[in-house]
Amino acid sequence: MADVLNLNRARKRKKRDDARAQGDANALKFGRSKAERAGQKAQDALDEAKLDGARRIRVEESTEDESSP
């Protein structure tokens, strides 16, 4: 004779498995880890600082020169 199967548990298990599969697919498609995002943010900040340091005229100086007649 076959084993007794609780249909509610089977339905819930299938729903959980489908949600997990969809989440894994989304993680592969869109996701980056928290460490990767933080590393990229730090690298962007360094790049921005390097670019600001290489300016010939600073933003503060240019606004002072324009306001004086």
Strand and helix map with partners:
Blueprint: H1 7-30, H2 34-53, H3 59-67
Question: Could you please describe the fold and organization of this structure?
Answer:
By secondary structure, the chain is mostly helical. It has one domain (7-67). 77% of the residues lie in helices and 0% in strands. It has helices at 7-30, 34-53, 59-67. The chain is rod-shaped. The termini are far apart. The model has no long low-confidence stretch (mean pLDDT 86).
Question: What share of the residues lie within helices?
Answer: over 70%
Structural class assignment: mainly alpha
β content, as a range? under 5%
Note the main sheet.
Answer: none
Q: How would the global form be characterised? A: rod-shaped
Number of strands: 0
Q: What ranges have pLDDT less than 50 throughout 5 or more consecutive residues?
A: none
Backbone CA Rg: 28 Å
Number of structurally distinct domains: 1
Counting DSSP H or I runs of 4 or more residues, the number of helices is: 3
Mean pLDDT: 86
Task: Compute the separation of the termini in Å.
Answer: 99 Å
Order of helix and strand elements from N to C terminus: HHH
Note the quaternary state here. Answer: single chain
